[in-house]
Design goal:
Layout (H helix, E strand, L loop, with lengths): L1 H24 L5 E6 L4 E8 L13 E2 L4 E7 L2 H6 L2 E10 L8 E9 L11 E2 L14 H4 L11 E6 L4 E2 L5 E2 L2 E4 L10 E3 L5 E8 L1 E9 L14 E10 L6 H21 L1
Parallel strand pairs: 1-4
Antiparallel strand pairs: 2-15, 3-7, 4-14, 5-13, 5-15, 6-8, 6-14, 8-11, 9-10, 12-13
Length: 266
């Protein structure tokens, strides 16, 4: 009788263990957005209102289990092999039903190696790469996710919510930030005033991971708690070519000369 009871207990514990492993194995499951070579890609979905900024009270780190995760291949296979670069604009806007008023997204890269779904972790830092500066909140993005370890793995972020400091002590400001020393981002970047877009210039063809969710830190009542999930639209398109400051100055000078000529004629 005792043997049967022991077996039953072991069986129950085994099922529980498998359930736990199964739950963890889906901690970092991503949706593939496809291949971006210039044609706009659009994804419409919903996400919890705090999933990009919170992991429990006072943490203000992203919550892996509830954030939306996407993978995207930038450039064709031949572009990746040749090391070509593209100008890409990533944009997050509110959906039409229960719109996500405050949202944010972060981008990491695995370079020329395809991204593999990760497992067994709960939180991530919005502004750092795995193992960057001795902080290991993103280590699971590298193993088994293939995200490049260290600072180079993180590309940038954009968010139109509130400015907050996460529990690693990193400032996550409204607007956007990008890795100015990344070998995968050459030519600079720009973020919209409201933090809804991130234009990446000279983005090296390869594989990229996007973590997306709501920005409403637990220390701020920035959004109604009902409903708990909000709709959004996420797009990848060709970034507009920025007009250099010198061009603006030249245009201003020309306008001034034209005005001066008209006054002289009068």
């Amino acid at each position: 009788m005792k043997t049967k009871l022991d077996r039953a207990i072991v069986s129950i514990l085994g099922v529980a263990a498998l359930s736990a492993v199964s739950a963890e194995s889906f901690a970092f499951g991503s949706t593939n957005l496809g291949v971006f070579t210039g044609t706009t890609i659009t994804q419409t979905d919903s996400t919890p209102l705090r999933s990009w900024s919170d992991y429990g009270t006072s943490f203000n780190l992203g919550w892996v289990h509830t954030a939306d995760w996407f993978t995207i291949q930038v450039g064709s296979a031949s572009d990746i092999a040749a090391g070509n670069r593209l100008n890409v604009e990533f944009k997050l806007t509110a959906g039409f039903t229960d719109p996500l008023s405050y949202g944010g997204f972060s981008i990491w890269t695995s370079g020329s190696n395809p991204i593999v779904n990760g497992s067994g972790f709960h939180k991530y830092n919005q502004v750092r790469g795995p193992n960057d500066g001795g902080v290991h909140t993103n280590d699971k993005l590298a193993s088994p996710g293939n995200i490049i370890s260290g600072h180079n793995g993180w590309v940038g972020y954009a968010q139109n919510g509130l400015t907050f400091t996460n529990s690693d002590g990193d400032l996550v400001a409204n607007g956007g930030a990008w890795n100015t020393t990344s070998p995968y981002l050459n030519g600079g970047a720009a973020s919209s005033v409201d933090g809804s877009t991130l234009d990446l210039y000279g983005l090296k063809a390869g594989y990229y991971l996007i973590g997306l969710g709501g920005v409403c830190p637990d220390n701020a009542a920035c959004m109604s708690q009902s409903p708990t999930t909000r709709n959004y639209v996420f797009t990848a398109s060709t970034a507009p070519v920025p007009i250099p400051g010198a061009v603006w100055l030249f245009g201003t000078a020309i306008s001034g000369l034209i005005g001066f000529g008209r006054r002289k004629s009068a």
